[in-house]
What does this fold into?
Amino acid sequence: QQQVKQSPQSLIVQKGGISIINCAYENTAFDYFPWYQQFPGKGPALLIAIRPDVSEKKEGRFTISFNKSAKQFSLHIMDSQPGDSATYFCAASMLGGGNKLTFGTGTQLKVEL
Amino acid sequence: SAVISQKPSRDICQRGTSLTIQCQVDSQVTMMFWYRQQPGQSLTLIATANQGSEATYESGFVIDKFPISRPNLTFSTLTVSNMSPEDSSIYLCSGRDTANEKLFFGSGTQLSVL
It folds into this structure.
């Protein structure tokens, strides 16, 4: 019930391409869906987040698409750059749950020249 | 956004000893959390650090093993007690920014237990 399933586990994209990472959840009480970016030796950094009242949110090259009926959300990285190479985690939480985040399993993205 | 300073950044410890990890936030946060991240894995919530009261632990984590303190709104510690090699992991603290409700993380403590 509390799981967030993330795919793919790893992803290789050419510079300038689109990176797409998908997540699915079970708990319909989740109402906050952030994406975190983590570089080796660093803590996760919030990249972008969405609430279920909108279907899409864009910030620069990063877009979250949200499908409430399918209980899925995805991260799209447009014009992917080598500096985007990192591990990406989706997560979910609910206000009533004290904002405790449940994380996906992570996607290791490598952007090649 | 608020910034969390976490220390130590890494440590190598002997089996049976204890290590205390400190987190200092540069502004007041309503909630602080402690996570564990095993190599190449996702983040697992250990506990919610409550200001002035006992922490709230997640299933599988107990106070005797992971005592937590939070004496004020900007500081918390996590102790990993009676360590074994299975405790080798990255430990991360996080805080909820009162200004924008976003959760942010410290840079983590990489612990190796021999």
About this structure: Chain A touches chain B through 20 residues (CB under 8 Å). DSSP finds no helices and eleven strands in chain A. Chain A has a mean pLDDT of 93.
